[in-house]
Amino acid sequence: MTAKNAVEIVSVGVMAVAMCAILWTRRERGIGWRVIQFTAVSLALPTILILSLEGSISSEVTGTLLGAIVGYFFSRDGKDDLSGNKKEKDDSQVRFSK
User: Considering its fold, how many domains does the chain have in total?
Assistant: First the structure.
C-alpha cells in the first residue's frame, strides 16, 4: 500500500466518523445551520483531497475549492452580531423523530 492509498483510506474514514458523530450527538438537540456547515466541510475537504491525489482535479482547482470552503465555513449568516449575541430567535432546528 502506498502513502497515497493510506491517505485516501483515512480520508474516507474521517468522513464516515464525522457523519456518525454528528448524527449521534445531535439526535436530541436537532441540527442547526452551523452543524450543516460543519457537515458540508467535513465531507467536502476529504473529497477534494482524494480527487486531488488521484489527479482528477488540478492544483489550481484544488486551491480555489479550498478557499471557497474556508470562506463558507467562516461566513456568518447575519443572525449574530460581533459580540455573539443573538439578534433574533433562530427556530431553524431540525429534530429527529424517535
Answer: 1
Cα angle: 4, vertex 39, 51; to 5 degrees: 25
Residues 6+ apart with CB under 8 A from 37: 72, 73
Q: Would you say residue 48 has pLDDT above 80?
A: yes
- Whether 91 is in a domain gets the answer no
Q: Give domain status of residue 31, yes or no.
A: yes
Largest CA distance in the chain: 53
The DSSP code for 93 is P
**34: burial class by Cβ within 10 Å (0-12, 13-18, 19+)?**
exposed
- Give the domain extent around 29: 3-73
* Global pTM exceeds 0.85: no
User: CB neighbours (10 Å) of residue 48?
Assistant: 19
